[in-house]
């Protein structure tokens, strides 16, 4: 099954880690996020977001792990998913997306699959899930 929904970030909070990191050309940051989903994906998520990004050059990579609760195509439950992508200033590459096996609850128990984060030309963000249910 393939389904998608728009999302907006309702909270982005940087997190300070007490970890010594080697100096590189890009700093590494960590934050927590909250998102709201509408459409065939309806609900909310919390995210642990990490990135190495240079805003002046528009280059970097992010890695995110999300915990979602709500519904996909009317099936209610929760699950975890992870995604990552890189940019060299324009466009995205190296994209990766997976639903965490064994993380589904309720009507989403047994969910497996992947998906993608889609950014429309007008800046609208969408999450597309390609999934199966046991």
Structural features:
eight-stranded antiparallel sheet; globular; 134 residues
Describe, in short, the structure shown.
The chain is built from no helices and 8 strands. The chain is mainly β and 134 residues long.
If you had to describe this structure to a student in words, what would you say it looks like?
This protein is mostly beta strands. The protein has one domain: AOC barrel-like. Helix content is 0%, strand content 69%. It is built from no helices and eight strands. An eight-stranded antiparallel β-sheet has the order 6-5-4-3-2-1-8-7, with no helix packed on it. The relative contact order is 0.21. The mean pLDDT is 95.
Task: Describe the secondary-structure layout.
Elements: E1 2-15, E2 28-39, E3 41-54, E4 59-72, E5 75-88, E6 93-99, E7 111-119, E8 125-133
Antiparallel strand pairs: 1-2, 1-8, 2-3, 3-4, 4-5, 5-6, 7-8
| Count of runs of 4 or more consecutive helical residues | 0
Oligomeric assembly? single chain
End-to-end Cα distance, whole Å, is 12 Å
* Order of strands in the sheet with most strands: 6-5-4-3-2-1-8-7
Number of strands: 8
């Amino acid at each position: 099954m393939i389904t998608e929904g728009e999302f907006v970030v309702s909270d982005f909070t940087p997190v300070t880690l007490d970890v010594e990191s080697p100096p590189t050309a890009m700093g590494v940051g960590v934050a927590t996020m909250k998102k709201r989903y509408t459409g065939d994906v309806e609900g909310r998520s919390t995210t642990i977001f990490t990135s190495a990004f240079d805003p002046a050059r528009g280059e970097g990579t992010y890695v995110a792990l999300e915990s979602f609760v709500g519904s996909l195509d009317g099936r209610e439950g929760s699950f975890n998913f992870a995604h990552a992508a890189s940019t060299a200033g324009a466009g995205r590459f190296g994209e990766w997306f997976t639903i965490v096996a064994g993380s589904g609850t309720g009507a989403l128990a047994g969910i497996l699959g992947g998906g993608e984060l889609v950014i429309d030309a007008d800046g609208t963000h969408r999450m597309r899930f390609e999934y199966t249910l046991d």
